[in-house]
């Protein structure tokens, strides 16, 4: 009889827990997001409503270490530091608890792949380690730093984008690697690596800058052997807004950690001013920017969300930090107004969505990506792709008083 009681008691407990779990899910799905909230929180709550676990973003079927998720974790931590609402910190912490083992190993990470993208997700670990003091997060940070120590470089000293893409520097890679590198060297190495960090920007500026437009080409092949590379300069043939956005975000984020007295600091601020002048020239009357930055409304080109958000973020933060003239604040506000009016849709329950996000773009690989105009406009355009979610929150936070 006692066994039966225990059995039915256990069964009742399991059923109760199951109903509680289902009820919690149902509440999340039916949650109403107030239109009175700021855009940053409306987007964050919408993301959490759709994907209760951060690793589920982009319809992932299982947890993984991913640069795009790292971008969103950075955005959520920025929002948490502004609002001090613990739900945003909890969302981030649960992600890192899932992908970092007790021994500090990183899920699906292989150092020997030497993929610069892998570094980006590590930025969120600094805050998690400060809050928890758990050794596993420090070990994960040290592992990522170890990758940078041995990461393949071009002959001129730039980080190769990936081991499978030797001798190539992409604008994307500046954001993937240098903000983490800057924070790590500032917090754990007394800033010993800032010269090397500045060199990454110097090489990109030297080799991808187009003198006619002031814009930066997506990538540079030092060997000039890639089919997509200009045989004289090594540059890819077109300007992709998101890649320039990655570069600009990298600049304003690295400057958070570079000491004011460092001799290279003024150089980086100058780079930010130069690219901002060029990017501002191509802002559409809507406030947005096109997928192929300088091609305007050429057939197939479209106003793209993620690049526009990144430009807004860099302009707004650049002004706030005193790197850019105050006039860029108005350009940032115009850009964000265009994003919310033209690219955001709102459900009856207040959930918001970001549209017209380029899902992905790169060079080389298989199937081969040739960097042509036709290539950039042919990549998939998605709704609520992570590339458009993280920068939306970052841009909103910078503009919200």
Automatic annotation (TrEMBL):
Keywords: Hydrolase, Signal. Pfam families: Glyco_hydro_88. GO terms for molecular function: hydrolase activity. SUPFAM superfamilies: Six-hairpin glycosidases. It comes from the Bacteria. Residues 1-26 form the signal peptide. This is Glycoside hydrolase family 88 protein. It comes from Flavobacterium humidisoli.
